[in-house]
Amino acid sequence: MNLLTTLFFGFLSLTGFCNGICMEEERQALLELKQGLVDHADRLSSWVASNGECCKWKGVVCHNLTDRVLQLHLSAPTQIVDLYDSVTLQLFGKISPSLLHLKHLSYLNLSNNDFGGIQIPKFFGSLKSLKFLDLSNAGFAGKIPPHLGNLSNLQYLSLRDNDLLHDENLHWLSGLSLLKHLDLSFNNLNKASNWFHFVNTLPSLLELHLAGSHLPKGQAEAFSSELGYA
């Protein structure tokens, strides 16, 4: 190989040349995720086994050098659907633990879908590379799993508008030392007597949303007073 050829391929590696073909383990993980979902609008129509270029599948973002899956943008579009149209843009069904095979996943957005009152999967707490997690308005219910506190790299967390979500102990927040944005609006936190302590110890927090979360009487006012908002 002559010097010119060597320089050419070196340039390609530096500029992020990739072929769109993610690792086979990650491609299979995405296909298993799709298999568990109900997708009436065929939003995931590009996710097919015969298409090996999984980094070009809709909603999938890969690293431009390694082709590792980094992001999944699976939020349902927010535009209003005709009430007489039988096709819905929301995803339904179950969320496969195959996501655990996406070792470099840093961004996961499942907002505005309808998962029918299932609990937030506990295995989400093992997605250790996550920096962004948006589960807002996605039809989750039950207790917020404390396993989310294992996401030590998380910077953005929104559980907003899952009004059947509840929690009595927010101790898991103490594991999120890098968290900058937290939205627990319109969840049921009326028994979370310790929320003040754990929110107040988040060293990186810049933005907090707690509207409509039914906080224990008097504690929201005390928190606002301490922050100078009274």
Automatic annotation (TrEMBL):
Its predominant location is membrane
* Keyword Transmembrane helix tagged: yes
Q: Where is the Leucine-rich repeat-containing N-terminal plant-type domain?
A: 24-62
Q: How does the protein associate with the membrane?
A: Single-pass type I membrane protein
Q: Which UniProt keywords apply?
A: Glycoprotein, Leucine-rich repeat, Membrane, Receptor, Repeat, Signal, Transmembrane, Transmembrane helix
Tell me which positions the record assigns to the signal sequence.
Answer: 1-20
Q: Name one GO cellular component term.
A: membrane
Entry-linked SUPFAM superfamilies: L domain-like (SSF52058)
Respond yes or no to whether keyword ATP-binding is given for this record.
no
Query: Which compartments does it reside in?
Result: Membrane
Database matches in InterPro entries:
Leu-rich_rpt, LRR_dom_sf, LRR_N_plant-typ, RLP23-like
The protein here is known as: Leucine-rich repeat-containing N-terminal plant-type domain-containing protein
